[in-house]
Write a structure and sequence with these properties.
CATH superfamily of chain B: MetI-like
Helix content of chain B: over 70%
Strand order of the largest sheet of chain A: 5-6-7-3-8-9
Radius of gyration of chain A: 18 Å
CATH superfamily of the largest domain in chain A: P-loop containing nucleotide triphosphate hydrolases
Helix content of chain A: 25-40%
Number of strands of chain B: 0
Number of domains of chain A: 2
Oligomer: heterodimer
Structural class of chain B: mainly alpha
CATH topology of chain B: MetI-like fold
Distance between the termini of chain A: 38 Å
Largest interface: A-B, 30 and 24 residues
Shape of chain A: globular
Chain lengths: ~250, ~260
């Protein structure tokens, strides 16, 4: 479990466009934080900075544990696309990310894991033989199999049909509660954010910063269609009608 | 079947596939036979005549000797050109710092006539085996490097990001992320390479060796023995077809089995 403290003074793209300015927040160890903002608000850029895929910025990103500062935490990243290695089987894809940790995967563990996400019997299939939903499940399993301290998710259930996405969200909550990594979940769906997160951070349009920090007080597990989620959603939008455009104008 | 790889369904049956491959060749041979019978010219020997010559040359042991020598040179030139070309291509595809200075040299090498390289190698290094293989390698290397460079440039940066996130070792990145994306380019380079190299090897042998198919073709040309020339060509074709059918295609099928 890792505490993530982000304090970005300024991040600009190569062409000079200011992507992020004065954006700061802290995620507590094991917390599930959703980041919601209008498209083009630099949400993916923010995740790339936190993941260390991009270092070009003016600011600080700090990781700590409950006991003190931590060096690079064990991180997983779920992208908008599954991004499995197409030439490796499901099993090989999972084994590949375990190798840096010196771990292997025996048949029993593998079959149990695959069964638990509804992929029983798919160990020797190649990604292109699987449906979109199944590929995401493999990607989700890959993200959790290394038991990460920090899990970054960039609209991972985008472009899936509702039942598949809903099933994956259920799976995500289940896996998260078992291993408790600190999660940063980027989405542009307020429903999805409210259904999954402990806390929702709303971002402004570019250059983005946090405009509202909202704690979700509701029982788990929840899903998009739940009455509590719908109530929260409507209440928020009633109070801040232009929230999803990145503007807070309280009454 | 759970736990097993499903086999592709839409491949034609093996016999049917081979028939599709060989029928046009057979038709060509028939056409040629008819043509040679009509023309009745000793410069257009019939396929039957060529086969007979092939048998004589093989039985005499001469063909196998020359063919063997040529194949050794082809193999040496092929592997040297592939190894150096792949290394160079990867380097140039990945790093602009190396690409710019080497690009001019590569274009120079690509467009220098094969004959010039061969003559220079023989003049500078003597009429030796080393000079012969070097000439073959240098002729082939630039085109391998160029096709591999295209492959290295077409790397999917998104998969490399995955590799970085999960902190894969350099070795794992190379073998499981990088190399599989290069396979199509490697096969392209190998196929082109084989066909081009054996053509160059013959010229090399014609100019400065006293054995090998190229040398033998030179003496057959001396006597206008067209049947002999075609018999050697046919022998080499058979070797190339065997390499393609027994080595390249099965290997490619195995490496491409993940494609839907």
């Amino acid at each position: 479990m890792t505490r993530i403290a982000v304090d970005i003074r300024r991040k600009a793209y190569k062409n000079g466009t200011r992507a992020i300015e004065q954006l700061a927040f802290t995620a507590r160890p094991g917390e599930f934080v959703a980041l919601v903002g209008p498209s083009g608000a630099g949400k993916t850029t923010l995740l790339n900075l936190i993941a260390g895929l991009d270092h070009d910025m003016d600011g600080m990103i700090y990781f700590g544990t409950t006991d003190g500062p931590a060096t690079e935490p064990k991180a997983s990243f779920m992208f908008q696309e599954p991004r499995l290695m197409p030439w490796l089987t499901v099993r090989q894809n999972l084994e590949l990310v375990l190798r840096p940790h010196g771990k292997t995967l025996d048949d029993d563990t593998l079959n149990k894991l695959l069964d638990s996400v509804g992929l029983g019997g798919c160990a020797f299939m190649f990604p292109d033989q699987l449906s979109g939903g199944m590929k995401r499940r493999v990607a989700l399993l890959r993200a959790f199999i290394i038991e990460p301290d920090m899990l970054l998710m960039d609209e991972p259930f985008e472009s899936l049909d509702q039942p598949t996405a809903s099933h994956l969200r259920e799976l995500l909550q289940d896996l998260w509660q078992r291993t408790r990594p600190t999660v940063l979940f980027v989405t542009h769906s307020l429903h999805e954010a409210l259904a999954l997160a402990d806390r929702v951070l709303f971002l402004s349009a570019r250059p983005s910063r946090v405009i509202l920090d909202f704690s979700v007080q509701a029982e788990r597990p929840r899903d998009l269609g739940d009455a509590t989620v719908r109530c929260l959603h409507d209440a928020l939008l009633a109070r801040y009608p232009r929230l999803l455009e990145g503007i807070v104008t309280p009454d | 079947m759970p736990g097993r790889l499903s086999q592709p369904q839409n491949r034609p049956h093996f016999a049917a596939a081979s028939w599709q491959r060989f029928a046009p060749l057979l038709a060509l041979a028939c056409l040629w036979q008819v043509l040679s019978l009509t023309l009745d010219n000793k410069n257009v020997p019939s396929p039957a005549m060529v086969l007979l010559t092939l048998y004589w040359e093989t039985a005499g042991g001469e063909l196998l000797l020359h063919l063997g020598n040529t194949l050794c040179r082809v193999a040496a030139g092929f592997f040297l050109a592939m190894i150096a070309g792949v290394g160079l291509g990867m380097l140039m595809g990945r790093s602009a710092r190396w690409d710019r200075p080497l690009d001019g040299i590569l274009i120079l090498g690509l467009n220098t006539p094969a004959l010039v390289v061969i003559i220079l190698c023989y003049v500078w290094f003597g009429l030796t085996e080393t000079a012969a293989v070097l000439a073959v390698t240098l002729n082939k290397l630039p085109s391998v490097a160029i096709s591999i460079r295209e492959g290295a440039r077409a790397m999917d940066p998104r998969l490399l990001e995955v590799a970085r996130i999960y902190r894969l070792s350099r070795r794992d990145i190379f073998f499981h992320v990088y190399l599989p994306q290069l396979y199509p380019y490697l096969f392209g380079a190998a196929r082109n390479g084989l066909s081009m190299i054996w053509k160059i090897v013959l010229v090399v042998e014609l100019l400065g060796r006293s054995d090998g198919v190229g040398f033998r073709l030179g003496s057959l040309f001396h006597f206008f023995d067209i049947a002999g020339i075609l018999a050697y060509t046919l022998a080499f074709m058979l070797v190339i077809f065997s390499i393609e059918a027994l080595l390249l295609r099965p290997l490619e099928a195995r490496l491409n089995r993940w494609r839907p």
